[in-house]
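Thread: Newbie trying to understand structure tokens

Hi all, I'm a second-year student working on a class project, and my supervisor (Dr. K.) asked me to get a predicted structure for one chain before our next meeting. I've only ever worked with sequences, so writing a 3D structure as a token string is new to me. If someone could post the tokens and maybe explain what I'm looking at, I'd be very grateful. Here's the chain:
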Amino acid sequence: MHVCCKRDPKFKEKKVKTKFLPRQYGDLSFTYDVLQAYENKYLAQVTIDNNHPLGRVDQWNLTWEWMRNEFIYSMKGAYAHKKDPSECIFGPQGQYYKDFDFSSVMNCQKKPVISDLPPEKENDEKIGKLPYCCKNGTLLPKTMNETKARAIFQLEVFKLPPDMNRTALNPPQNWKIEGVLDPTYKCTPPFRVDPSEFPDPSGISATISTIASWQVTCNITRTKPKQAKCCFLLCLLF
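---
Reply by user tm_fold:
Sure, no problem. This is what the structure looks like when written as tokens:
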């Protein structure tokens, strides 16, 4: 028995509609993916992609600003420069989490400074074991090394009221990245995009979608050349 199938000439492919903005291109792009969400905390993954054909970033330092008194409990694939639990204990975080042990909190700053881990931490069971992590902050162009054009790290974020439900998710604002002897980047505010998709870690041919995703795009800023100025005294002579 044979069956022949023909394409319906009247068939029209439906355009997939989304309520989120399309992803944009930038010299550098960040993706802020929420992987797990709970009532008082969530797990996020930050992906940095270097899309510039020639530009590179060395020993990157990433900063942003928490707008709703969040704090970073733990991180993998990167670290925050300052660990000072007193900022949480004497702040609104300590007033709400009265019995919380803040001594093991990664960072309580409103504007944390985050950096990549060195290569020797790549296989560390506690803070490593993430793809594309632990390159000492090096981001090369994809034309040079596609593996080193991306960086990934994860962070566990605790929230405060009135955001105590799993759907109250707010990414940090005012993103800024700097490196050693690298160009200056100007970044957009985070904007919501379709959830990112990842291969199923079990190895089956399925994809897993994130709970929510935001993108930040950054472009190299080009300084305007300074215009020649005429000295007042010289102008009088002529």
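A couple of things are worth pointing out once you decode it. Confidence is low (pLDDT under 50) at residues 233-238. The domain at 28-223 is CATH 2.60.40.290 (Immunoglobulin-like). Feel free to ask follow-ups in this thread.
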